[in-house]
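Reopening this one. Same input as before:
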Amino acid sequence: MKKISLAEPNIVDKEWLYLKECLNTGWVSSSGSFVKRFEESVSKITEIKHSTAVVNGTSALHLSLLILGIKEGDEVLVPSLTFVAPINAIRYLGASPVFLDCNEHHTLDITKTLDFLENETRMKGKICYNKKSKRKITAILPVHTWGNPVEVSKLKKICRSKHIKIIEDASESLGSLYLNTKGTLVHTGMISDMACLSFNGNKIVTSGGGGMILTNYKTYSKLAKYYSTQAKDDPFYYKHNAIGFNYRLTNIQAALGLAQIEYLSDFKKKKKTIYDLYREGFKDIPGLEILLPPENTKPNYWMTVLRVNKKIFGFSRDHIIKRLLNKGVQCRPVWYPNHLQKPFRNFQSYRVTRTQQEVKKCICLPSSTHLLKD
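Same output, byte for byte:
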């Protein structure tokens, strides 16, 4: 039986050339020309000034939170419907998540988020406090789920007035664009303080593992490079004035990532074709529908998601998953709500209702870029 993978990397031809070139130089660790070229390529695509390559998306989130001053006892607003990485990164620093709901596109519910910021917080000087917990709110972490852009521009004004930093988890959204409040088409991560990408094996572009910290602020970029290389103040005499991390991406991974990113435009077209085929295939089946992207966006269609209405279709999400797996079709449910996860149950959640409904109904469908129509 031929198996169909959920999100398999698409290795074309330049990967072999760049990897061989990298190996021939002898620079395979965290120094070498491919790291810089990879960073420059990402900045060119996103139009975000500074990129710092790191070992994975989680480390990118961790360092971004650290650089923006999130400390133990602080609170960070974050959606419940997301991979666990941003929640873990918040907890690494001893900060507490405040969980928010999703909308019909599985991205952050902007209306509920604005309601929380306007009615459930108070200012004391230049510090924003949560009325319920009395804790300081220092950041918000929107996630561009499945490559669907969050309208971060709608949060910027109120976050600025409340001195709340914005960190975008753009791990799944390389190549995704949206119209900001000025009517300009921008890449995810463009208008926030910092943003993070992932190049895990299942992403639209992969470096085997890897991540990227994006920012338009030179100071933050310098700190990202500093902390990700063990905080070396004097690399020759090994002097360190801060605690650093071994988070820099290797040159050999960057070589793979650089080759992959040169195919991004082609990969996006293939992802869109797959999405369109799914929509066409399910359009006349009552009780089944493909998750739509938000209006005024140009997503990368990283992952296609099917929503199942059991009452209409007659079978549950789990029944469909079981049948597909038995046929060799890899699929999975969406993530379990993080506000219900054992390590996070005691943290505040605000009007999180839709998230549970979506989780019960939705299935991630095979979305590899080399899928064939038949």
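So the earlier flakiness isn't reproducible anymore. For the record, The first strand starts at residue 50 and ends at 54.
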